[in-house]
Specification:
This protein has 416 residues and is of the alpha/beta class. Helix content is 35%, strand content 21%.
């Protein structure tokens, strides 16, 4: 095991930076509402760019608003190491989800500057656009375009609930960039993130070494019924789309329970009914659903099991049920070489750790299909996330930040 470098991040400075971020889009309950491409997100983007420029970084913005801030390396021809996550939040979001990964990367380059340390490879901070998917769907759009998994035009066409498009909002806030930036230009990606779950805290471990990701399938289900008056319409004549939606919800829940002992889970996340009026039977329901499992092949089996049940669900509900557009990500292993750097630094510090898979979606999952990628998890209080009460302490995050600094420094100085 290589000896650790003697540099350490300034945790008080990082915490102050995190708390400044927590002021931008702050909610009354102490969380954040900083939806992608909102005015609050724009303000945070400008603050981040200001910090990056203060640190001597060169800032570029691509066509979907991903922000890249580069610290030059000694070898101008070497591909940069990417470090980062996202600054957008959920509607009732916390102060650290994604944000820690971006601002810990900023602290990394500030620390290198403090010690006048040059790296062979450039180090590039990244803030991905619309990771959360809380405003525009699907989530992780910025990294999907970066890797070529989605076209920019697809991203531009996404609409929020008020009919505003992602492309239009990029234009409005001035972040529809001109720089052509793709995965091929980079060496690797490291992402630090709060766990968003209770395992590290429950096990008393100081950090998580993320070895891969759960397989994820998201999909939309439409239930087509027939409207009518809730009073005079007799039961045998009804085609209530909400009854069909209830059947779908129960079936998806049952599939999750049937697979939970091996880590599976399935969810109906959202439902929209029409005409959604007093006195009227619903004639249409749109549902958004999700299935996850550590084994990507099992996720496919779970999805197939649901589709196989559609005839019986239609018969019981007297409605037509259609599975529409979907998305899939995850199910991969992260890069062994990058994981080894994290593991070596963890051992050299003497930190306690555990290997785990990420169950939540992260931009690293898109990038891992194209670049050597690894993630580090820090504990978070009660495993709570996507919630205004989300919380960490300096003691929670310091091990992960220290390991991030050492692993990235090692990667940035390696020979090809």
């Amino acid at each position: 095991m290589k000896r650790l470098s003697n540099i350490r991040p300034d945790m008080s400075r990082l915490w102050a930076t995190l708390m400044r971020s927590a002021e931008i889009g702050a909610t009354e309950k102490g969380g954040l509402k900083r939806l992608a491409l909102s005015d609050e997100d724009a303000a945070m983007r400008h603050q981040f760019i200001h910090w990056c420029e203060e640190a001597g970084l060169t800032v570029r913005v691509d066509a979907v608003g991903n922000i890249f801030a580069e610290r030059a390396g000694a070898d101008a021809d070497a591909k940069p190491v990417l470090v980062g996550s996202h600054l957008d939040t959920q509607v009732h979001g916390g102060r650290f989800d994604g944000i820690l990964g971006v601002l810990a990367g900023l602290e990394l380059v500030r620390t290198l500057n403090d010690h006048a340390i040059a790296t062979r490879r450039p180090i590039t901070l990244v803030n991905w656009t619309n990771e959360e998917g809380a405003r525009f769907e699907p989530p992780m759009i910025g990294s999907a375009v970066f890797t070529g998994a989605k076209a920019a035009e697809f991203a531009y066409s996404r609409k929020d609930r008020d009919g505003f498009t992602l492309g239009g909002e990029l234009e409005r806030i001035g972040f529809k960039g001109k720089d052509a930036i793709s995965a091929e230009a980079f060496d690797s990606l490291f992402e630090l993130h709060i766990e968003q779950g209770p395992r590290l805290e429950a096990a008393g471990k100081q950090l998580g070494i993320v070895t891969g990701a759960f397989g994820v399938r998201g999909f939309v289900v439409e239930v087509h019924g027939e409207t009518g008056h809730v009073g005079p319409t007799p039961m045998p004549a009804r085609k209530n789309a909400l009854v069909g939606a209830a059947e779908v919800t129960l079936a998806i829940n049952e599939i999750g329970w049937a697979n939970h002992e091996t880590g599976g889970k399935s969810t109906t996340m959202r439902i929209r009914a029409e005409p959604n009026l007093l006195g009227a039977l619903p004639n249409f329901v749109e549902m958004t659903c999700d299935m996850r499992h550590p084994d990507d092949a099992v996720v496919s089996t779970m999805f197939d099991a649901f589709k196989a049940r559609l005839p019986e669900l239609e018969e019981r509900s007297r409605c037509r049920i259609v599975v529409k557009e979907g998305w899939a990500y995850g199910g991969m292993h992260f890069d062994a070489g990058c994981i080894e750097l994290i593991r070596n630094a963890t051992g050299a510090f003497g930190y306690s750790s555990m290997d785990l898979l990420t169950e939540a979606g992260h931009d690293a999952m898109h990038v891992a299909e194209y670049l050597p990628t690894a993630m580090i998890f820090t504990p978070c209080e009660g495993g709570l996330s996507h919630n205004e009460a989300e919380n960490v302490t300096v003691a929670d995050i310091e091990p992960g930040v220290n390991v991030l600094v050492q692993a990235v420094l090692e990667r940035a100085n390696r020979a090809d």
